Amino acid sequence: xxxxxxxxxxxxxRARRDGNVVxxxxxxxxxxxxxxxxxxxxxxxxxxxxxxxxxxxxxxLDLAPAANTPPEVRHRFLDxxxxxADGTVWKLLREEKPDVVVHMAALRSPTRxxxxxxxxxxxxxxxxxxxxxxxxxxxxxxxxxTLVYGARGDNPAFLTEDHPMRPDPGxxxxxxxxxxxxxxxxxxxxxxxxxxxxxxxxPMLAPERRDYRLRYLEGAFxxxxxxxxxxxxxxxxxxxxxxxxxxxxxxxAHGVFNIAPDGVLPISSVHLLFGxxxxxxxxxxxxxxxxxxxxxxxxxxxxIHAHYVRYPCVxxxxxxxxxxxxxxxxTTLETVLQVARAKRGRGRALDFGVLEEIARTAAYxxxxxxxxxxxxxxxxxxxxxxxxxxxxxxxxxxxS
Amino acid sequence: xxxxxxxxxPAPAAPAGAVAPFTPSLMPEPTDEHRLLRNxxxxxGRFLAANPELSSPRAWVDIWNMFRHRNRSLDLDDxxxxxxxxxxxEPLLDFLYRVWWRVxxxxxxxxxxxxRALLVINHSGTLPWDGAMVKQGIxxxxxxxxxxxxxxxxxxxxxxxxxxxxxxxxxxxxxxxNGERLLQRDELVGVFPEGVKGVGKYFRDRYRLARFGRGxxxxxxxxxxxxxxxxxxxxxxxxxxxxxxxxxIGRPFGFPYFPITPTFxxxxxxxxxxxxxxxxxxxxxxxxxxxxxxxxxRPMIVNELADNVRQTIQQMIDxxxxxxxxxxxxx
Lengths: 400, 331
Fold this sequence. Notes:
The complex is a heterodimer of chains A (400) and B (331). Chain A is α/β, with parallel strands linked by helices and 400 residues long. In chain A, 41% of the residues lie in helices and 12% in strands.
């Protein structure tokens, strides 16, 4: 739009190279979103959910289109691992002129090829953000992970967005996400007129997604730390998609948001539901043993990730609730139960029917216990014992 | 390998005068234990036949896991407190409260029946027994049976075995974020502002309150508009009299020091048993700070308020000590 003279030439060149691909047609009048990594597990779900609504023109930038992609969703090839990927992204963004760029292309399980993960997760984000800045993109949504807070013994029970990112310096996998967030912060600083939303997604768990957490949970043994039982949270992929849609619908979503479920579960209870025998290892040996297992190919994450079965790393979703209007549909217990039943439902002594009833009651109790404190109704009758006063209690009353 | 079953009815067709059936002498006669064992195995076999799904190895893992979780609940609160797990230790805490330390609790009416309040408690006794006893006392004697949530030092919440246990019992790691969250939910929160300096003080320094941190608890009370309830615990200083505390030994175990008491480590695990002193827990009148949350940003006022609370608790301790006789009997 800014340089009408240059546009036809570049579009013509693209059109010659891959003939059937054309730019967003201007006639639809719908807003346009470009999704990098839109063929990944979460990306494909997000794209399908958005296409079903039909109010956005969607362009997926990925290596290959995902299976079952709706026909109205277009795909263009993008490999963020190439050294000049920023130029490619820039050209694509100049041709397509999307209103919003959602950057989801990242490797979400640790790999032994740490260089590849670094090139994609950290440098890939740098490429996309740099190109988005040059292409004058006004809205960006970047997905990150709550692991960037790091599992630490001195973490508060719930990590808010302003808590510093302190993963273990030796954790290369998580460090790449921290770097990507730094790139996003730099982008927001350089382009104060652009809205940049960073979504920190809590660890996701889904039966059809065999990432490193699911491989850990459904192994023959699960290594745990002797004498430690941290609280964990697991996000349902539907809730992650819901959060992305909510963010897309808020034109002024800016800043960092934790996308986390309600409720927590000790990791020992997760093992109970999965029916996995625990192998408790003293923490003096655990890191070395886990690293050896990882190097030998038996473990799904490097030894440094043993931190996450020792210390808590639980994120608070209050800001996303307040600003984005996000409210998770599944608690941690419900998500874990769903996956455990789907993956390990056969030959169990546990009665999943009873457990699901417990999960429903727990979710209901959680709702009544927590929600009333978050938004106390002004006309709640404040009884002598159970009522919750909207204002801090008066001291005279207390002292009498 | 079929052998005549001694319990079975005698063989019907044994003609008179026939030779007794041969019994291998190497096989001993079945004793009562043998029969019991065989019956048990038979029961297991019948059980497995009735429940074919239990013959999978996963089911046995389940049974083992369920055995380990027999006293645990899946319905935890946000901070991981587990009512079912806490109930198991209820008799032990009750025994310590009534029999071992014969706690006398005064001023329980000063704890509000509902709404937020911040209990400020002096810390002593090497292990956080004082917090457990204050919680137990309020739970037992308060008309509303309020559950106090204790903010616990890092040095305890990062220790193996103690970490999950304290969490299940309702303990929360001491940090401003956790305290604020609890108070905003109108919980009763207990803090020990002396911290490590209090819980690990030398025996010769007993009942002399250490500095009250940096006044974080005052900032907490100001931000959340909570009344401060001073609590003094007398008797806990003598349960593990610390004679020396070389930190060189403690550090590798993740403990800031290594307490040496008359019984520990000399008596080994027996040295962990606290001495049966007589305890008093006195709960004072709530202190009205009477200031708004903006004062939390003024360190000098915060420090003065913290020192006022410290002096109040020191006076409560001193007056109780003056009336106390023998450390163990109290008379």
